[in-house]
Each structure stands twice: as C-alpha cells, then as structure tokens.
Amino acid sequence: MYPLKGMCPLRGYYRIMEQDMIIGHGVDIMSTKRIEKAIQRFGDQFVSRIFTPYERADIEKREKYAPQLFTAYWAAKEATMKALGTGNRQGVRFIDIEVRHESSGKPYIQLYGVSKQRVETMNVNTINVSMSHLDEIATASVIFESNGKE
Hints:
Layout: E1 4-7, E2 14-16, E3 21-31, H1 32-42, H2 44-50, H3 53-61, H4 66-84, E4 97-101, E5 107-111, H5 113-121, E6 126-133, E7 137-146
Antiparallel strand pairs: 1-2, 3-7, 4-5, 6-7
C-alpha cells in the first residue's frame, strides 16, 4: 500500500507522498538443470563469461549449494537486464552485473560498464533484489527506483 498524504475532499482520491518511483522491474525464473548442463558443456569458458570472480569465490565457499547459487545469480542478472529494459543487448553483459551480499546476507547488485552507465542515465538511486531457489529452480526479482532527482 502506498503511504498516503491525505484525501482530496473534492475529488475523493488519495495523493501519494513524495517518494521513490519504480522505473524498472525485472523477474526471471531458471531451471538449475539448464545452468548445470551449460556448465558441464562449456566449463570455465561459460562460468567466467557469466559470473564475476567475486561471485565464483562466493559460490566456492558454499559448494554444496553451487548449482542453486549459480542459477539464482543467473536469474538475478537476467532480472536486472529486464529492469534495464535492454536484455543482454546494447552492450549489457552478464559479467557487468554482480550479485553481492551485505554482512546480514541480504543480496544487492553491483553494476559495471554499460549497465552502470545505463542506471546512471535512468537516475536510479535504489536497486532492490530478491532471490529464491529450490533444488531444481531459482527465481529473482529486481526493482529499480528513482526519486526523479539527478
């Protein structure tokens, strides 16, 4: 629900308080088996083209969950590309979208290259990411917010 500033007595509608506006939203869902097959088929060539050194090191620490994490990170990258409105075109690359974690475990997105330039052009001031996975499937949602100020 939107935070409400007050009701307009003449028109009967609520005015929304000044707040960030959603300017991009992307959702992706991916099969763990599909990512596992790509890794088996193309090996390190695939992994190093899609996942940053930080992400690979993070996944190595939790090797037991590697298939699910690779898939969740893939989904977060795809969702980010959808929020950008580009997909993996216009110079946007998987490797330029990095999933990181705060000390609390909360994920966040770090952008580089054309992806970073694009969010700056869009005046994005907040990127929200949520990921979830089961053994065979992972999903992610990414929301870009802007307060409209440069």
